[in-house]
Amino acid sequence: MKRRDFLKGLATTSAGVALSGGVGSLASTAYAKRKKEDFGEIKSLKVHCISETSWFDNATLGKSIKAAGGINTNQYDVDWDLNNLGGYAALLEVEALDGKKTKYLLDTGWNNDWMDYVFAKDGIDKMLKNKEIDTLIITHDHIDHYFGIESTLKHQPDIKIYFPGTSMKKSFELLKGADFSSTPGCPKNTVPHTGELIVTNAKKEFYKIQDGFGLVFLDAPATLQVHGENNLYFKIKDKGYVTVTGCCHAGILTLINYARRNFKDGNKNYGCYGGLHISVFENWDPKFDDIIEGMKTYNMSKIACNHCTGWVWAEKAAAAGLPIIHGTNKNLSYKKQGSLSHSHTSNVYTGNGDDVFFG
Ligand SMILES: [Fe+2]
Ligand SMILES: [Fe+2]
Fold this sequence. Notes:
- This protein is of the alpha/beta class and 359 residues long.
- It has helices at residues 3-11, 15-20, 29-33, 58-68, 112-122, 124-129, 143-146, 149-153, 169-176, 252-262, 286-296, 311-319, 339-343; strands at residues 42-51, 89-96, 101-106, 133-137, 160-164, 178-179, 188-189, 197-200, 206-210, 213-221, 227-236, 240-245, 269-275, 302-306, 355-358.
- Helix 1 runs parallel beside helix 11.
- The longest helix is centred in the first third of the chain and has 11 residues, at 58-68.
- One fe (ii) ion binds at residues 54, 88, 142, 144-145, 246-247, 275, 307-308.
């Protein structure tokens, strides 16, 4: 798409749809006719970043992908460099209007050693064993969000799971117990899942998790033959909507526009957390400036980004006046850090061990 067309899209508030390239159905008349969803409100949401470093060095990861044939190779066919692997996961604590708190685990990372380490650091292992965590939500079956499934299941095999229906056949097999580890960096799971499994799909699309917390499945394209992602929306009383994402492959503007079109009071956008999938490999494209301009129009109060957002985009967004939440550098005390953590002092990422409070 030409940049001129992209800007035209911004003007008509369909920028995100244009960006995503794969969820064009959102603009269809079926959606226009749909009654606006009113799924209630919560008092607050606390997001704890367990780990946002899916890998530690971009160049090393890029080399593995290139050697396997490029970005469209099946993710189970790439020889990954084990020493470079981490994973993405977050703990979500939802406070209902009556004060009741419920915990959710968002994604389960990649490298089991790293996930065991970060889970132990934050007591996630004990929370799972004690059944303090209500549900595991897998955003999508990408390497860094899902291959570490054993790290969760070994503590609580019967945890309720939301899982995208577009996941690869091997990803479903992994859930039941399978071993793909003959390819370096590919997963094995010796603990079959025994609990409730909710497979999300584009037909139903909207899933209410609890009052004030909804999940929207969008079949957006991603790399390594993965597609489809579960995106989370929270409606905070008196504040507005918070969007929580794994990689945000559909595009952040798409997700904000989704709320605006489909949810009651959807134009109140309070904030977001997660990977925003913009300058993923710290490259730059003029379109990324347009995303900054687009996000400015939504008057959000808190933007907590990390993972595949791209440090360079987050820095530019902060300099342009977007309310980027700055991290605390706790991640520097972890046994490993992403290569960017050392070279940047601007702290524009919500890093490993950081909390963000929406309420
Ligand atoms: Fe990711
Ligand atoms: Fe992803």
